[in-house]
Amino acid sequence: MPVGTCKLCLHVRELRKSHMMPRSLYKKTRWEGTPNPNPLLVSGRSSVQISSQVSDYVLCGDCEQRFSDRGERYAMTIVDHKGKFPLLDLLNHVPPTRDRGFAKFYDAAATPTIDRAKIAYFALSIFWRASVHHWKSPGEPSQQIRLGPYQEPIRKFLLNEASFPEDVVLVTAVCTDEGTRNSFFSPTRSKKGRVHNPYFQRQRNDVLP
Fold first, then answer.
1. Cα dihedral sign, 149-188-139-38
2. Torsion angle of alpha carbons 42, 188, 57, 125, nearest 10°?
3. What is the CA radius of gyration of the chain?
4. pLDDT tens digits, 109-163
5. Using CA atoms, how far apart are residues 167 and 149, in angstroms rounded to an integer?
6. Rounded to an integer, what distance in angstroms lies between the CA atom of residue 113 and that of residue 119?
7. DSSP at 178
8. Does pTM surpass 0.90?
9. pLDDT of 209 over the 50 cut
10. What is the distance between the alpha carbons of residues 184 and 157, in angstroms, rounded to a whole number?
11. At what angle do helices 151-158 and 116-131 cross, to 10 degrees?
């Protein structure tokens, strides 16, 4: 393994092959039992079923483990897989705090079994890792988003050196349609005025600094 500076802890260590999106997401998107079970990669140029994953040497082993322990492992147990969607099932069994017709809202008191802290950590870790490295997708230009002045506060939060960053709001939307539930895309950046609004999808997560 190569030796370099870990983007999270900033120590010089052996670097592991990190994934921008969790490796298990690729596995959950496979169509096992079909002639080509690989996920369908859709880009502005083409669409192709491919086994390649967006990865590079970015983090050390300790920081990879930190991401797993503090959010990723939990998040991967509640996303949709093979027609089962544990997070949606949890929400469907409790009355919403608010119902606007087009969307239902649930507060923490109504859903005490959902670990919001781990979901928030996982989502911020995805946004952060997409902002600190040029990730190369098969056949596509490198990807990188910008978090502006929030990048360093988020890094310190992920490293457990600071609390959840001020002026950052994380919104998680749990989608009910099968097309959305069976797909994911990497973080994309949208900026309106001075507001940084990156987002990504498995369930959809928006972070609004």
1. positive
2. -130
3. 17
4. 889 999 999 999 999 999 999 999 998 876 666 678 888 899 999 999 999 999 9
5. 11
6. 12
7. H
8. no
9. no
10. 25
11. 130
The CA-based angle 208-122-60, given to 5 degrees, is 120
Residue 201, amino acid: Q
Specify the range with the lowest mean pLDDT, choosing from 80-84, 182-186, 204-208. 204-208
Please say whether the beta carbons of 201 and 164 come within 8 A. Answer: no
Backbone angles phi and psi of 17, in degrees to 5: -80, 105
What is the domain extent for residue 110? 3-208
Residues whose CB is less than 8 angstroms from the CB of residue 35 and which lie 6 or more positions away in sequence, other chains included: none
Three-state secondary structure call for residue 146: coil
Query: Phi-psi category of 101—alpha, beta or left, where left has phi over 0 and alpha has psi -120 to 50?
Result: left
Contact 17, 56 (CB under 8 A): yes
Structure tokens at 114: 């959902």
The C-alpha atoms of residue 102 and residue 96 are separated, in whole angstroms, by 13
DSSP single-letter state for residue 172? E
Q: What's the distance, CA 49 to chain centroid?
A: 21
Structure tokens at 141: 């230009």
Q: Domain total for the chain?
A: 1
